[in-house]
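Protocol step 4 of 6.
Sequence for Cytochrome P450 sterol C22-desaturase (Laccaria bicolor) entered exactly as in the expression construct, tag removed. Do not edit the line below.
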Amino acid sequence: MDRLASAKIPASTANPSLYSFAVPSVAYGKSATWFYTTIAIVIALLVLEQSVYRFKKRHLPSDKWTIPLIGKFADSMSPSMESYKKQWNSGALSAVSVFNIFIVMASSNEYARKILNSPSFAEPALVHAGKQILSPENWVFLTGKDHVQYRRGLNALFTRKALGIYVAIQESITRKHLKNWLAEAAKTGAAQPIMMTARAMNMDTSLRVFCGNHIPEHAAREINEKYWAITQALELVNFPLALPGTKVYKAIQARKVAMRWLELAAHNSKIAMANGAEPECMLDEWVQVLADPTYNYRKEFSDLEMAMVVFSFLFASQDAMSSGLIYGFQHLADHPEVMAKVKEEQERVRQGDYERALSLETLAQMPYLQAVVKESMRVQPPVLMVPYKATKAFPITDDYTVPANSMVIPSFYNSLHDSSVYPDPESFNPERWLDPQGLANSNPKNYLVFGSGPHRCIGLEYATMNMTLVLATACAMMDWEHEVTPLSNTVEIIATCFPKDGCKLKLTPRIHS
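Step 5 output, structure tokens:
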């Protein structure tokens, strides 16, 4: 009986080891299927990525293959002038890819100007996260007729009358900061980098010109301290998501702080003008212009909208103008023969009265210093390029069309170092600008320091006036020597360009006979 019973037991029950072996076999089979399927999908996606990249770049100079997913991101973490020059010199148009963002670089004057002057095909994008940082509603991202009309209304903020108001503010702030520079220099007697102190001076100047006393001192300090986060996030390539701790996230938080104070300034300006005060800053001038019955543009702006415009001016002026100022100081110190001519001009214009307030008329009597400023920004442009986004397929040449939604980036460096327009282009030679019929002045299309087309810098006269005023005041108040280091001529690119050692200057008060 026992033998029969045992004979009827199924083999799978009688042998537990066979039963336990069968289940893992099925599970292993399923796992292997998923594993190989996943590998196949990943490989297919990688092949697709490379195929799309090669299809988009076509015959443009570039790497034959792009690094999967990140592309040139590693290179962009520490950009250098050498790497950019290599890219620009590879062809009038070239291509790269970063985080699957396809980028076409334009290095020639022809193609750079074509991008800047083709609003129906491309719009300013600044950097990939630009709209997140500056706010998508900011007027700088307007295009077409909306942008043209908005910009025409803002031109009233840069008239000769308005600039005349700003000069006194600029000079007052400049003298205050240069006195502080000299006081700090006297404590150590050693050369100190001026990069951050120049940025602080420039920020203070901008906030007082734009907002006057409608913004408290501690607010100006807070904006200055936090704005560096915005500068760092405006590098050409950054991690694109605004996750806590990232540069883009920190920049957005800094923008919110600045906007809160700028809205308050706009509100206070409206109250002051309604109470009959005289304009003392840009916001005041704007409010008064809007109240003028002969003004034919948009007349109603909320505090937020005015704050966004002021913030856009702050963005445009802070980094680029700081870079221009720092290199202006460095170029003068490195060329004592030029510095001597600037000081001679100052003596002639001021006639020994170095405390006399500057005016637009006084600055107009400084053609040599103006040439110095222009040449300094040509030799080392504060802004090397301005990213645009192709809003649709952009036939930039007869045989190449930039794909829609690609980044297309005009570079200014080669235009500003074109030897056919600027002989010996690497040399610092302000005299090239003194002859109205000379090559430099006869080819204005090459001078792309302030861009070109509908988005050309609206405040270019303000910017050049401020640089001229600061250097003129510095020449009146102090002497300076450049302590050259191995990094003095190495360009650090953080949104704009700076000497990698911060431009170390030894400052001493100037004694006038």
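Step 6, annotate. The radius of gyration is 30 Å.
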